[in-house]
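2024-03-11 09:14:02 DEBUG pipeline.ingest accepted 1 chain
2024-03-11 09:14:02 DEBUG pipeline.ingest length=391
2024-03-11 09:14:03 DEBUG pipeline.predict start
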Amino acid sequence: MIVRQFINWIRTAPAGERAEATRALARAWLISDLSTDDRIAAEGALLMLLDDPSPLVRQAMAEAFARSAEAPASIVRALSADQPTVALPVLEHSPLLIDADLVDIVATGNDDVQCAVARRIALPVSVCAAIAEVGCAAAALELIENPYAELAPFSWNRIVERHGHLAAIREAMLVLDDLPSATRAALVAKLSETLAQFVVARNWLSADRADRITIEARDRSTINIAARSRGEDMQGLVHHLRVTGQLTAGLILRALLSSNLDLFDAALAELADLPLARVTALLHDRGGNSLHALLRRAGLPEATFAAFQVALDACHEQGFVGSDDGAARLRRRMVERVLTHCETDRGATEPLMVLLRRFATESAREEARMFCDEIAADEAIDPLYDDLIAA
């Protein structure tokens, strides 16, 4: 009886009063002990109100039903397809929307709609993949910052491909501790390309010089990323580097001269198409024949074999580095040892010598910087000791 009176009254009531009444009816449907007849009548009234000309009415219904698993499913689906001001609460919170619904909504919705879906709790892989594939940059950012989103590696990579040129996207991704190393490397490459295009457009550097500086900076970043990668994450990184053409002899030699044997082994295993354990065992053979055969199978230039051999011998003598930071820096003594050997080796090519000289300069500058940092740190500690003694 009450619902029938409501239906008669709402036909002539103002929009604001209809919205408040609709909110009350929706809450009653959820929490009141209505009789079967009244519940059927209430649902009929709510279905009728989906056609109300005022969005305030439908918005009130959406807010009441948005978080409830007991709401009428047909009404929730209708509200999810309404205009954004009505649909957003339902899209962001309703547990009644299934994955297929959400994928379709992402594909057909505007930016606000996609962002609302991206903020959902327990967002499954399929919906994340849809947002990564067709979502706007704002939705991708919401997805990155959503701790409940289940992103597969290919979704991370797709976001980088589509939106990696945007600073906000890069910054949001790079601060994530669990970001796959391959994705982190792809972001660094995007940043390098963006900076190179900028300086060339400004006529600050020539295109060739900008490309060389970009490659060097990207390689340094890759070694830094690899120093913190292990297991499958390392394998994924190396595969990404190969697919994108970054797994070059120069990068692999840089890894070895940084004492990063994990990256060196994984790179050769990837290029030679051999199991990692087999490659590691071969590299422990100090005779040299195994290394040369492995380098040849990996397709690396024969002119670099001697440099790799000398670097590997030096790495074995010095042992593993003690920290991730150590595995990200060129080792000056190793670089100079390889450079000295190649200067007397008739088989060394000019490009290899140029590369090694750059490595030597870089490692010397890095060592000098660390030395100065240590002096500055000591100078900061000394006054503290003087104060303690005076006290």
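2024-03-11 09:14:41 DEBUG pipeline.report The radius of gyration is 31 Å.
2024-03-11 09:14:41 DEBUG pipeline.predict end
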